[in-house]
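Bumping my old thread because nobody answered last time. Still need a sequence for this structure:
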């Protein structure tokens, strides 16, 4: 008996599909080649007051505008957050990953603590580096120090920069009282309960035609003008 032999059908090569596949493959190769060879072109920085843009770029190791693929956002953030003066960093890449946006929160200096001979930073750490900041000239009790530090963190930087010296100066009725010498020559008395009211310092002084005197923020906003 003869067996029926089935003949296999030959499939014709679909040239159109092959052409489309090769085009897509070529585009993917070109895309990844370009991706792996893109250099960072623009760096945008926000959130810094004490550190300069160039210092942040150097800390992030982007000073030579290296290949973007070798400097992932997470890697850049880690480099920045390893620095003593940076609390946190957020890095986003835009464009064809050639634009880097860096937003940081600084661990900026708050004051020079004279009894320790050190600069106190936002997070409470101390450093021997030098900064132009207010000087706390005497010892603050441990029971008050942490609250004092927390209040100082909430002071606007432009107001903080107007402070020259801070003295812990309690009275029999107020153990949380401070005396502040301002860079413009005014004096301020304040306590921890009213500490944030010093953020209104500029507007208060302007309302007295920028005259010199003693501002009592520990008891309202009374301003005693110096005799002219």
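Sorry it took so long. Here it is:
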């Amino acid at each position: 008996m003869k067996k029926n032999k089935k003949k296999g059908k030959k499939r014709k090569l679909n040239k159109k599909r092959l052409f489309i596949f090769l085009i897509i493959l070529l585009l993917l190769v070109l895309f990844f080649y370009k991706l792996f060879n893109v250099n960072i072109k623009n760096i945008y920085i926000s959130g810094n007051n004490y550190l300069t843009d160039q210092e942040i770029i150097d800390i992030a190791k982007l000073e030579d505008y290296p290949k973007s693929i070798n400097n992932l956002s997470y890697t850049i953030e880690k480099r920045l957050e390893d620095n003593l003066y940076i609390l946190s960093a957020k890095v986003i890449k835009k464009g064809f990953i050639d634009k880097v946006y860096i937003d940081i929160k600084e661990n900026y200096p708050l004051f020079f603590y004279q009894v320790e001979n050190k600069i106190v930073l936002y997070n409470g750490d101390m450093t021997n580096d030098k900064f132009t900041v207010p000087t706390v000239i005497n010892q603050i009790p441990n029971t008050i120090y942490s609250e004092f530090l927390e209040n100082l963190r909430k002071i606007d930087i432009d107001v903080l920069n107007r402070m020259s010296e801070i003295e812990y100066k309690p009275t029999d009725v107020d153990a949380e009282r401070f005396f502040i010498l301002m860079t413009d020559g005014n004096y301020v008395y304040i306590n921890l309960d009213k500490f944030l009211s010093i953020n209104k310092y500029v507007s208060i002084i302007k309302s007295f035609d920028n005259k010199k005197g003693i501002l009592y923020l520990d008891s309202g906003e009374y301003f005693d003008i110096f005799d002219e």
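The two ends are 133 Å apart (CA to CA). Let me know if any region looks off to you.
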